[in-house]
Amino acid sequence: MTVLTTPWRESLALRVGLAIGTITVLAIFSILLSSFVAENSVGKAKAINDSGSLRMLTYRLTEQLTSGQAAQAVPRVNSLINQRLATLGQVVNARGTD
């Protein structure tokens, strides 16, 4: 009774080469996938930070309006809000052209 063997079962070098080739293909796939994810997330963190900043500025403005400090607070907070809105608009417009 003869047992047929395949060359890849007998050759250690062939099995190691196959394992290294598989690892290399998986590494390249992982690099391409992470590059794709990184490219698509550019600007999103800035938009989230600007949105949170706008929320805090409106909270601060509401607090100062209810405490009677509106005369001093409104112009300063209004200019900060306009700056943040302009920055947020630039981020959104930049993402829209991609």
Give structural notes.
By secondary structure, the protein is an all-alpha fold. 86% of the residues lie in helices and 0% in strands. The chain has four helices and no strands. The chain has helices at 7-10, 12-40, 44-66, 70-97. Helix 3 packs antiparallel against helix 4 (70-97). It is rod-shaped. It starts with 6 loop residues before the first helix and ends with a helix.
List the topology elements:
Layout: H1 7-10, H2 12-40, H3 44-66, H4 70-97
Helix pairs in contact: 3-4
What is the 3D form?
rod-shaped
Instruction: Describe the main β-sheet briefly.
Output: none
Q: Please report which band the strand proportion falls in: under 5%, 5-15%, 15-25%, 25-35%, 35-45% or over 45%.
A: under 5%
Number of helices: 4
Secondary-structure element pattern, one letter each = HHHH
Percentage of residues in helical conformation: over 70%
Rounded average pLDDT: 80
- Cα Rg: 29 Å
The CA-CA distance between the termini, in Å, is 67 Å
Structural class category: mainly alpha
Task: Extract low-pLDDT stretches.
Answer: none
Count of extended strands? 0
